[in-house]
Amino acid sequence: MESIEQKFETREKINEKFIIDLIESDQWRMEVLRAVKELNLPDWLIGAGFVRNPVLDKLHNFNQATPITDIDVAYFDLTDLSEESEIKYQNFLKEKIETDWSVTNQARMEKINNQNKDYVSTKDAIAHWPETATAIGVTMLENGSLKVIAPHGLDDLFSLKLRMTPDFGDGRDAFLARISKKQWLSKWPKLKIV
């Protein structure tokens, strides 16, 4: 008989495979991942709407993809904390693929986010993003395979729950205002705020 932990692990693996299959079947998303991989950034991922939106679209049986406002590239580099490098990377990516890019070195974001502790990795940093369903990323490994990074797991995303991450520094009011501003409940009506 399978334990609760085993059932959870099995469900997480199924959900990870779902995300990877969804992204691998999307030619544009694969081009985006390959473009970011060219930068050789340390500890990088693409997160937020890049992963969240296609999953929510699929769970809502949409035929049309919900557009993303920008591509959130996160990386972790203690050796270069300059904003100039982020801008250089954004410009490189914009030349490759004409879209809005947001490239941020998570090693400097704890100060911007008014956190009390330094982040130790990109996974640690995205754990502080506002929603558990947004704090999910995907990266491309050396062999070209994809890996999902989800510090709070994938359950909320696949259960259509909008939950504030435990370490989101701006608090519940900012979390609710963000959901309202982004109109997620209009875009994906099956979503529930937790």
Structural key phrases:
5-stranded mixed beta sheet; 194 residues; 9 helices; two-stranded parallel sheet; alpha/beta; 44% helix; 7 strands
How much of the sequence lies in strands comes to: 5-15%
Shape: globular
- Determine Rg (CA atoms, Å): 17 Å
**Continuous helix count:** 9
Main sheet summary: 5 strands, mixed
Mean pLDDT: 92
Could you name the ranges where pLDDT drops below 50 across 5 or more consecutive residues? Answer: none
Number of strand elements:
7
- With strands numbered from the N-terminus, the spatial order across the biggest sheet is 3-2-1-4-5
- Summarize the amount of helix as a percent range: 40-55%
Domain module tally: 1
H/E element sequence: HHEHEHEHHEEHEHHE
Kindly, what is the distance between the CA atoms of the first and last residues, rounded to a whole number of angstroms?
A: 31 Å
SSE class: alpha/beta
